[in-house]
Design brief:
This protein is α/β, with parallel strands linked by helices. It has a domain of 254 residues: Amidase signature (AS) domain (Amidase signature (AS) enzymes, Alpha-Beta Complex). Helix content is 40%, strand content 12%. It has 17 helices and eleven strands. It has an eleven-stranded mixed sheet, with helices on both faces. α3 packs antiparallel against α4, α8 packs antiparallel against α17 and α11 packs across α14. The two termini are 14 Å apart. The protein binds asparagine. The site of asparagine (ASN) has 12 residues, from loops. Asparagine binds next to loops. InterPro entries: Amidase, Amidase_CS, Amidase_dom, AS_sf, GatA. Heterotrimer of A, B and C subunits.
Amino acid sequence: MAQADQIIAKSADELARLIADGGLSSTEVTTAFLDRIDAVDSQVEAFLHVDREDALKQAGEVDNKRSAGEALGPLAGVPIAVKDVLCDETKACTCASRMLENFRPPYSSHVVNRLKAADAVLIGRTNMDEFAMGSSTENSGFQKTKNPWSLDSTPGGSSGGSAAAVAASMAPLALGTDTGGSIRQPAGFCGIVGLKPTYGRVSRYGLVAFASSLDQVGPMSHDVSGSARLLQAIAGHDPLDSTSLPEPVPDYLSTIDQPIDGLRIGICREHYGEGLSPEVDRAVQAAVDTYIEQGAEVVDVELPHSKYSVATYYIIAPSEASSNLARYDGIHYGYRAEKFDDMIDLYARSRGESFGAEVKRRIMLGTYALSAGYSDQYYNKALKVRRLIRRDFDDAFSKVDVILSPVTPSPAFKIGELADDPLAMYLSDIYTISANLAGIPGISIPAGQSESGLPIGLQLLGPTFGEETLFRAARMFEQRTDWHKQRAALA
Ligand SMILES: NC(=O)C[C@H](N)C(=O)O
């Protein structure tokens, strides 16, 4: 194997350690990943923007710091792909929308600043569903990202570019965002690890808002240690986000290899009914057996309101989106229509010409749900159901440490398969959405493969601030299996 092939096959944790010890320079590592992008991204289309020179400059700075004996951050020299919804003042931030095609943010997001402070190399900006609305990355205003395991399948979404970048070994780490499953679902479809943190664990400052009470930024990687290392760098209180919480951040990496004695795994029987593909069902049952072999106890839990989670989400998320996206009016910033009659016409044309169909659908749904005379019936009622969903989880976590479930009802669907059926697309988030409504953390880990060779994910949900438990429990599975070592066979 050539040196570059060996580098891109390594996990983020191995790379971080090798660079820190001087076994590899960041320039070597970054070059290997940039070359991989050059070789395969024309097939995968995971990136919207890669600046080779800039990435190598960042890598060179890390190498110089190292040779000067200066202290290095925890991600020193490790390349990371960033979803194009997180502001970086040195780059355009498009949210994969024509509306923001030329938008250069005047400031950087908290997480981008944290990555820079951790000495990471920001290698490129990844594709996504427009404004994070979607589950397949087909709603991007620019390109359709392919699943590296099967180029005619979607990578999931909305963080499909980030998931595909990691799965295709174009970056060892990526940042995604998760409003209703947008980290966990693409991680599941692409055979990688993805974690949605507790709401408030990671600052949303500089994250372009979709649904502010649900959005969280989180890590994506090949294995659990990569996500733990990345979360460590971005978690913690930020006074610039009033919803960020001052809870201390544990040292995730130091406990990750400690198995949880007598782990209590909650299973909700309702998760295993109609609509679940037999292949996913089998993989999840096999995962349960793997835990039982390690002394875990399986406990039935009830989540009686989770059947309302998709309906609840598709009122609350579009309502917040309709308000958040009101700022794109063609005047303040963003796309402006060339021809218009008056101000109202300018608003209408600018929005009409630059937003895609799904964004328009969500704005209309949300505006309707919030409108006078309907808000009690829809929005306010959805808030009450959200509270009940949260309460179900509180009850469940008084009995168990984690709740185990599929990530999605089936492995990755084909490009175009659900594109004309928004409801079917919304249902692909059925297992992930309730965690966002409840604000709790969830992790998706590789746990199997379908007969046609597509990855199958496993989800573990934890109580508020239970990320450490999730990492340890996920690592117990990883130590007994090698799904996380499988790589997509791209030429
Ligand atoms: N943004 C997300 O978390 C994904 C979800 N499928 C949505 O379209 O809202």
